[in-house]
Amino acid sequence: MDKLSRDELEQELRSRRLQADAIDRALRRDAIFESAVDFAIVVCDQAGVITDWNRGAECTMGWSAAEMIGQTTHRFYTLEDRANGRVESEMSNALRDGSAPDERWHLRKDGSPFWASGELMPLRDDNGVHQGFVKILRDRTNQRVVGERLRVSEERFRTLLEAVETAFAIVEVRFDADDRPVNYRFLEANAAFTQQAGVDLRGKWVTEYAPDLEPFWFETYGRVAKTGEPANFENYANTFDRWFDVRAMRIGDPAERQIAIFFNDVTARRRLEEQRVELTHEMVHRMKNILAMVQSIATQTFRTASSVEEARDAVSGRISALARAQDILTETQWRAAPIRDVLQAALAPHRDTGTNRFTFQGPNIELTSEQSLGLSLGMHELATNAAKYGALSTAAGHVSICWSCDMEGGFRLVWQETGGPAVAPRQRQGFGSRLVERLVANYFAGTAELLFQPEGVKFVLTGQVEVSMSATQAKPRLGVEIRPDMRKRS
């Protein structure tokens, strides 16, 4: 009997200890439940009626436990979520999947929204019977706002980069074992980058496309990545055959060796500048040549002229001939001039508007700028002499100018005067004759002969021109008289 009493006593003591342990565990759970003030913990039954509401829920949403126990969880959901059955769908998903994420806007007691980040889980007893649900939430409004601002900022930045004409890329620089830059990869690039570079290099190492890229690019980008000092420069990339105006700066963690580069293709501007320099040099060169020619003309004219008046008239006429040739060359940008235009400009002062004193016949030949100047001076001298003493000094006089060119550029031009006074043999060779025979021939790399025949002065020029004819047969200009006998003599 005493022994039985002891067994019953021990069983009673064991039962009390278990009850005490259960009470301790419950107290600890309650303490945890209430002390988790950073987390809103809400317990509800199967219908969504709230049965527990911790201090964290009160701090997060503003309602006290007394205000919320017995209410449904609909109370802190937005009107839109209530109308859409969001509460019911979350409970269904939690039962089906074991949990349901809750990342959305909820309401506080004062009606203000906050961004909740949490989860809804089924609540079951020790036997696995479904008793209700537990919802755990954290207020992530600040993080949500910051993240949204960051997203908007990134979108604006991305839109800006895609819209601007300046090329942009983020580049990762690779260094070898000796810490020397040997390659770089394009991590990101905008549309302008692809357009200006002429190739899409996103995700690629530059040596994949340009294995022979100049060391300058590796050294410059490597220095920016290592030191953090920005670089601004213009440089030529032979692989791309382009000039680039570049701004490079380090970004992010220095250990990542990444830089941002902004650049513009300035090839057109650089080539225009080069052309401008070349053009300036060419203009200076041509101006010196023209001034030297004018100086020589003036010196020789005054040396051989019989009077100041004669010299003045001769110099004025010769410089005017040069000026008319210059006008033609200016129109053609000093590249070449059509021979017919050169002849007509040089002889313009001597052409009668009422009669055809000149006949032109020959193919369409382009003369160099030097040939244009030389021929213009020669034609001026011949016309001036003809006006004083030859065919142009009488009403019946006529001048025929015929030229030809073969496929190799062999050139021949004939000036023939007819219908003027009988020509006397030349008594002396003045500067005008020397200009016609020597200067003009020199520009054509050939020979020139001035013949004083009784029926009229004849000038024959042979040499070389560049073969750029549009026709190999003589095609007279409409309205200009071509005489049969002129054709035979040419």
TrEMBL record:
Entry-linked SMART domains: HWE_HK, PAS
Keyword Transcription belongs to the record: no
Catalytically driven reaction(s): ATP + protein L-histidine = ADP + protein N-phospho-L-histidine
Enzyme class: transferase
InterPro entries to which the protein is assigned, alphabetical: HATPase_C_sf, PAS, PAS-assoc_C, PAS-like_dom_sf, Sig_transdc_His_kinase_HWE
Residues in PAC domain copies: 100-152
Protein's UniProt keywords contain Kinase: yes
Domain PAS: 32-98
Keywords carried by this UniProt record: ATP-binding, Flavoprotein, FMN, Kinase, Nucleotide-binding, Phosphoprotein, Repeat, Transferase, Virulence
EC number: 2.7.13.3
PANTHER family: ETHYLENE RESPONSE SENSOR PROTEIN, TWO-COMPONENT SYSTEM SENSOR PROTEIN
Name by which UniProt lists this protein: histidine kinase
Organism: Roseomonas haemaphysalidis
